[in-house]
TrEMBL record:
PROSITE patterns in the cross-refs: GGDEF (PS50887)
Domain GGDEF residues, every copy: 327-458
Cofactor: Mg(2+)
Keyword vocabulary terms for this entry: Coiled coil
EC number: 2.7.7.65
GO process annotations (BP): cell adhesion involved in single-species biofilm formation; negative regulation of bacterial-type flagellum-dependent cell motility
Coiled-coil boundaries: 389-416
Protein's name according to its UniProt entry: Diguanylate cyclase DosC
GO cellular component: plasma membrane
InterPro entries according to UniProt: Diguanylate_Cyclase, GGDEF_dom, Globin-like_sf, Globin-sensor_dom, Globin/Proto, Nucleotide_cyclase, Rev_trsase/Diguanyl_cyclase
Superkingdom of the organism of origin: Bacteria
Catalytic activity, reaction form: 2 GTP = 3',3'-c-di-GMP + 2 diphosphate
Lineage: Bacteria, Pseudomonadati, Pseudomonadota, Gammaproteobacteria, Oceanospirillales
Presence of keyword Acetylation: no
Length: 458
């Protein structure tokens, strides 16, 4: 919020001299007693308008979300349309900026909010018109409600635009900053997963064991293409081709799962077709890896995990996909126990070595389609697409055990053992990913509190 602080004083002055003046505060006291009992009517109109739009429905159409957001909108209206004193101004402005940031995280299309806000305004005007205010007071009240709603919305828009631009910039630099070498290695792992999937699938079909319709989508390769490829690779033409070939493969699988009584010859033909598509994808993946290697000159960082600033576009994408498909992602927040002590006893360089090795365990324990971020100094955040909290807890437990067994060799023949604590949370259905993140953080806190070296689920 510091970035907008220099505007704060100007905004505060504007609010105090134009909106929340002593005279206007008197009018607002009257307005709020009239509108107060009917805020929910206005809020209902807003959501009806918003949910009329298919793109908004994708992330808002859930009872849980609707109820929470309705409550927030009601509180927001009650807040801005009540008298305010000078000392309340900073908090009021801060709140509008926070709302804009939440909208940016949810990626709600702002023009949609603008439209729906028109309905809110009209709703408020209607309530005032239906009241027994005299004409002169009524005009004044309508003008004031209009100015307050307009100013607040413009402030929300400002913060929203700022954060959206920032998110976009971070998504771009995620591509630029990840070492080309790391992505190329990742692509190699994905390629081999694809061919493993292919040989298993052909074996299953030919031995009449049947193939699950979503087996490709659920494979590490499928998850990587759906959740990660676009965010980490800049070659839109190659990734478009890979997606197209994957669709062809999916169509073949659908055929095989629905035409179980096909003659063996026909099944062989389809398997050949699948092989061909998979080989083409394999070739395209190599192209992608080569082009990344050719452009790579970046040094690896200490942990070789993704920097925290790139978290927003990833969590935004995962949240949108989870809301659209119902396949939740899960988060693991983990932290090295008593790390400060390691620094204090063995020195900062030893601390770095421990950090590097712990991060290596984390990197190797997750699927290629997962994301591992360096969240803080010795704190990591893992994002696991299409995974339940139970599955994530299993991954966390595996990492915990590996870290517990790790012996970090230091200089002068010294060595150190470490442990890590883990907080696990499944996406909780709220379009603002910060809610889920907070749950993981609280679970981690609880793991620390319960004695460390353990996994706690939110
Ligand atoms: N060597 C090294 N130390 C770091 C790095 N980043 C953060 N730290 C240190 O990590 C320590 C974190 O300590 P705390 O957050 O107090 O927690 P802790 O000692 O790990 O204890 P618990 O988390 O409560 O188990 C601080 O002393 C930081 O200075 C880094 O990149 N390298």
């Amino acid at each position: 919020m510091r970035r907008l602080n220099r505007h704060m004083k100007g905004l505060e002055k504007f609010y105090l001299t134009n909106l929340y003046t002593p005279e206007n505060n008197k009018v607002l006291a009257e307005i709020s007693t009239i509108i107060q009992p009917r805020y929910m009517d206005v809020v209902d109109v807003f959501y009806r308008e918003l949910l009329g739009d298919t793109s908004a429905r994708q992330f808002l159409d859930s009872e849980q979300v609707e109820n929470r957001l309705k409550g927030s909108l009601k509180d927001w209206l009650a807040d801005i349309l009540s008298p305010k004193e000078r000392y309340e101004m900073e908090h009021l402005i801060e709140r509008q900026l926070q709302i804009g940031q939440v909208h940016a995280r949810i990626d709600v299309p702002m023009p949609l909010v603008d439209n729906a806000m028109l309905m809110v305004k009209n709703g408020c005007f209607e309530i005032l018109v239906e009241s027994d205010m005299d004409r002169e007071h009524l005009a004044e009240a309508i003008r004031l409600v209009n100015s307050i709603l307009e100013s607040s919305l413009s402030m929300i828009n400002q913060a929203y635009m700022h954060d959206m631009v920032e998110n976009e910039r971070n998504a771009m630099s995620l591509r630029l900053n990840l070492s080309g070498q790391d992505i190329a290695l990742e692509i190699e792992r994905i390629r081999s997963d694809l061919f493993n999937w292919l040989s298993d699938s052909i074996f299953q079909v030919m031995s009449a064991q049947g193939l699950a319709e979503d087996s490709l989508q659920r494979s590490e390769f499928g998850l990587w293409v759906n959740h990660k490829m676009d965010l980490i690779t800049p070659q839109a033409d190659l990734s478009g081709k890979i997606k197209h070939r994957m669709d062809l493969l999916s169509a073949d699988i659908r055929h095989l799962t629905h035409q179980a009584d096909d003659p063996v010859q026909r099944q062989k033909e389809i398997c050949n077709q699948m092989s061909k598509a998979a080989n083409e994808i394999g070739w395209l993946l190599s192209e992608l890896a080569n082009s990344l290697l050719a452009n790579s000159s970046k040094e690896d960082s200490l942990t070789r995990l993704i920097e925290r600033k790139h978290m927003a576009p990833v969590l935004q994408k995962e949240t949108q996909m989870a809301l659209a498909t119902g396949n939740d992602y899960s988060l693991i927040m983990c932290d090295i126990d008593h790390f400060k002590r390691i620094n204090d006893i063995y020195g900062h360089a030893a601390g770095d070595l421990v950090l590097e090795q712990a991060a290596k365990v984390v990197r190797h324990a997750v699927r290629v389609s997962d994301y591992s971020f360096r969240y803080g100094g010795e704190e990591f955040l893992l994002v696991l697409p299409e995974s339940s909290a139970e599955q994530a807890a299993e991954v966390a437990e595996q990492i915990r055990q590996k870290v517990e067994k790790l012996v970090v060799e230091l200089e002068s023949q010294r060595s150190v053992n470490i442990s890590m604590s883990f907080g696990v949370a499944q996406f909780n259905g709220h379009p603002d990913y910060m809610r889920s993140l907070k749950n993981a953080d609280m679970a981690l806190y609880s793991a620390k509190h319960q004695g460390r070296n353990r996994v706690v689920m939110a």
